[in-house]
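Lab channel / #folding
Pinned by the channel admin:
"Please post every new chain as: sequence first, then the structure tokens as a reply. Keep commentary short and put observations after the output so the thread stays searchable."

First post following the new format, from NK:
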Amino acid sequence: MARGFLIKNNITKETLLKIAEIGILTIPALSSPYFLHKVVKRYFKNKINERVRKLRDLERKKLIDIEELKDGSVRVILTHLGKKIIHKYKINELEIKKPTKWDGQWRIVIYDIPQSLRKASDAFSQKIRSMGLYQLQKSIWVYPYDCLNELEFLCAVFNIPLEDCVLYFKTKELPKEKQIKKYFDL
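Reply from TO:
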């Protein structure tokens, strides 16, 4: 369900990301059945009716909760499933920021993920390849810039225990260094 839903609609993505960015959408005490229009007008600039329908749809799919508080105000928050979808969006956009100058150190990523986490291992490998890491051996990857935060994020999303399965360290020298420097245009 979540996979097809994820790809289907940009307004879904924009709406969920906005809720995630703000944290919790709230609107003061309302008794009008059009309270969602007021929420959308306050937090979004365009496509009001479409976004209202999308908020209702997201609530129906249990990606957000819309709750009326004791004071009459309304709160819109992401559910656990909604947060998982946000992580998938963020994974798709994840890239490593490159500094203007290389510090001369290589970052080595070595991982050994148990067979019971095969899908997570494959996804992890595919994502680090798409982020531009160089594959030195089957589970040994090299990158010239710091990428620890991105690796920690991937491990969290794929439920891979970082400290048990992934090693990350720096070194000044590498085998095949000329070839790898050429790969990274260094």
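NK: Residues 96-183 form a domain with the Alpha-Beta Plaits fold (CATH 3.30.70.240).
TO: also worth noting, The chain is about 50% helix and 20% strand.
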